[in-house]
Amino acid sequence: MPSSHFTAAYEGTPPWDIGRPQAEFVRLAEAGEIRGAVLDAGCGTGENALFLASRGHEAVGIDFVPAAIERARIKAHERGLAVDFRVGDALRLADLGRSFDTVVDSGLFHTFDDDERTAWAASLAAVLRPGGRYFMLCFSEREKGEGGPRRVTQAEIRATFGGSGWQVVSIDPARLNSHLGSGGRRAWLAKIERAEERASGESPRG
Description:
It contains six helices and seven strands. By secondary structure, the protein is an alpha/beta fold.
């Protein structure tokens, strides 16, 4: 979607700004799936990053809409939580100058066109540590309701992260909560891991 769409959305309350963390990320955190330093990519007004910070994670949130980041910073101040919220381009994560153990994505991947998906995988690889985890929550092609972003198939997810350096661990049916409909919309929750670096001279396992 054009960037103007997202900027205009923050003149009010965007459909994805639900005022609480996504239930799928709450479940993952409670199960111990989210580890270490966390990046919330496309963080919006920061609810997922703020929730993870409240659980003791070092958290960074990035979004390219200044109004969203301003609201996120206000929330962090009001809640007494230390989250580093930055205006930035998710396709240039290397500009952050640091790395993470976990990256969470609530509704970012499904905004990308085909070329941007390739750029996103490369951007993500620049900051996700070997063995790190990427959790993607995106609209599924099973969602037939009107409105909302481009739908994504499991095959498209696997095609984006099917190259060396990645392992698609799981893709499970999920719900993405928004203001577009009660009970959320049908989604995929993908767990993708960055491959561990091999020692010099080590042969890949076959």
